């Protein structure tokens, strides 16, 4: 005969839905983005707290710097006056088949832990993408690839919270961007105790190209013709030859025959690290 509940013969009791929400199981979900050249694919950070021995694990193809974030996050949370839950902490970085690099997810992981443990409101994390490497004292350090992430966040209609050091880079786009220098500043903003101002969009003024001109080059007819064809058709070009044949001289003059970049092209070029 079967047990009082659950599958036949299991003798197990299903955990009530309300107990799963308010008892031993807690979940917080945040948004961020990885860095992949000039692209910034979305990453979902899921922080799950469950009963058991205190263990902190990160899954989702994290490389060494990402796996080490658990020590940075733990130190930052304690230094900021919060508590690290004495439970099993599982952090999932989705999609699972994409490699995650760097310390850019530290801030999101820390906020996920605070949200899952109900030290801050989970609802306050919705619609915001978080970026930043954490110091052991709770400071938020700069991360690379904020500009391509901001461009994609603008297209998706998300707001961003980035390190204060990355303010100028993020302000090049039209997305709603806020900056913070510490974990405490972020939690104060999310709780409504102290609001962080939105950065004004600061587009740089157009710059006229005044570099060397291809007209100055005497000879090199075949090489100049190749540069003109590449510039006119938007093709790639590879300069090969022994030292002293004029490769660098010609390459420095290539921008002088290129048409002005559009604003979108200029932002994409600036996103190359």
The assigned structural class equals alpha/beta
How can the largest sheet be summarized?
Answer: 4 strands, mixed
Question: Spans with pLDDT under 50 lasting ≥5 residues?
Answer: 1-23
Radius of gyration: 25 Å
CATH architecture of the largest domain: 2-Layer Sandwich
Gap from first CA to last CA: 65 Å
- Average of pLDDT: 87
Q: Record the strand order, biggest sheet.
A: 1-2-4-3
Percent strand: 15-25%
DSSP strand tally: 9
Q: So how many helices?
A: 10
* Name of the level-1 CATH class of the largest domain: Alpha Beta
Can you offer a commentary on this structure?
The chain is α/β, with parallel strands linked by helices. Helices cover 31% and strands 16% of the residues. The protein has two domains: 19-191, Ribosomal Protein S5, domain 2 (2-Layer Sandwich); 214-270, no CATH class. It is built from ten helices and nine strands. The strands form three sheets. It has a four-stranded mixed beta sheet. Strands 5-8-9 form a three-stranded parallel beta sheet. Strand 6 and strand 7 (140-141) form a beta hairpin. The longest helix has 13 residues, at 221-233. Residues 1-23 have low confidence and may be disordered.
């Amino acid at each position: 005969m079967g047990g009082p509940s659950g599958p036949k013969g299991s003798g197990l009791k299903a955990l009530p839905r309300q107990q799963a929400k308010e008892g031993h199981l807690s979940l917080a979900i945040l948004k961020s983005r990885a860095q992949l050249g000039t692209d910034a694919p979305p990453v979902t950070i899921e922080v799950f707290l469950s009963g058991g021995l205190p263990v902190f694990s990160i899954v989702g193809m994290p490389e060494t710097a990402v796996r080490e974030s658990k020590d940075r996050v733990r130190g930052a949370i304690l230094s900021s006056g919060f508590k690290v839950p004495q439970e099993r902490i599982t952090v999932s970085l989705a999609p699972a088949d994409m490699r995650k690099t760097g310390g850019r997810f530290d801030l999101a992981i820390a906020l996920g832990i605070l949200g899952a443990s109900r030290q801050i409101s989970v609802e306050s994390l919705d619609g915001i993408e978080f970026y930043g490497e954490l110091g052991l004292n709770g400071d938020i350090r700069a991360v690379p690839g904020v500009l391509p992430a901001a461009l994609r966040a603008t297209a998706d209609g998300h707001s961003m919270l980035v390190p204060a050091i990355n303010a100028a880079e993020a302000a090049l786009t039209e997305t709603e961007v806020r900056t913070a220098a510490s974990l405490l500043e972020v939690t104060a903003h999310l709780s409504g105790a102290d609001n962080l101002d939105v950065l004004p969009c600061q587009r740089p003024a157009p710059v006229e190209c005044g570099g060397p001109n291809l007209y100055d080059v005497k000879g090199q007819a075949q090489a100049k013709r190749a540069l003109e064809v590449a510039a006119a058709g938007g093709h790639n070009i590879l300069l090969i030859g022994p030292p002293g044949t004029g490769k660098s001289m010609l390459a420095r003059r290539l921008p002088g025959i290129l048409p002005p970049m559009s604003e979108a092209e200029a932002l994409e070029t600036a996103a190359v690290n």
